[in-house]
Amino acid sequence: MTRSKKPLRKCIVTQEMVPKQQLIRVVRNKDGEIFVDETGKRNGRGAYLSKDIQVIEQAEKQQVLNRHLKANVDASVYEELKAKIKADKS
Fold first, then answer.
1. Which pLDDT belongs to residue 2?
2. Which residues are CB-contacts of 85 (< 8 A; sequence separation ≥ 6)?
3. Extents of the domains making up the chain
4. Which residues form the YlxR domain (predicted)?
5. Which CATH number fits domain 8-89: 1.10.20.140, 3.30.479.10, 1.10.10.10, 3.30.1230.10?
């Protein structure tokens, strides 16, 4: 019996390799817009973060997304990430 492999991605804060489903993707597209990618399939430079409020707060404090996406990430993106995690947990 062959089981298909789950795609793994690395959280840019914790540096852990985890299944893609356990991460949230943030994308910067060609126009420089930065947004949360619900589908995980949008075009652009992507960065993965663990679905954990503390990880999001650490990313915000250390400006990890800014470095990874090579752009200034607005606070509203972090707020959206936190809101999504809270919604998923409830």
1. 64
2. 24, 51, 52, 53, 56
3. 8-89
4. 9-82
5. 3.30.1230.10
Question: Can you tell me the distance from the alpha carbon of 90 to that of 6, in angstroms, rounded to the nearest whole number?
Answer: 25
Q: What is the DSSP letter of 21?
A: G
Q: Which two tokens stand for residue 86?
A: 């809270």
| Distance set, CA 9 to CA 29, 33, 55, 74 (Å) | 19, 22, 15, 24
Residues 6+ apart with CB under 8 A from 62: 13
Spatial distance between the Cα atoms of 71 and 32, rounded to a whole number of angstroms:
8
Low-confidence ranges of the chain (pLDDT < 50): none
The Cα–Cα gap between 63 and 40 comes to: 22
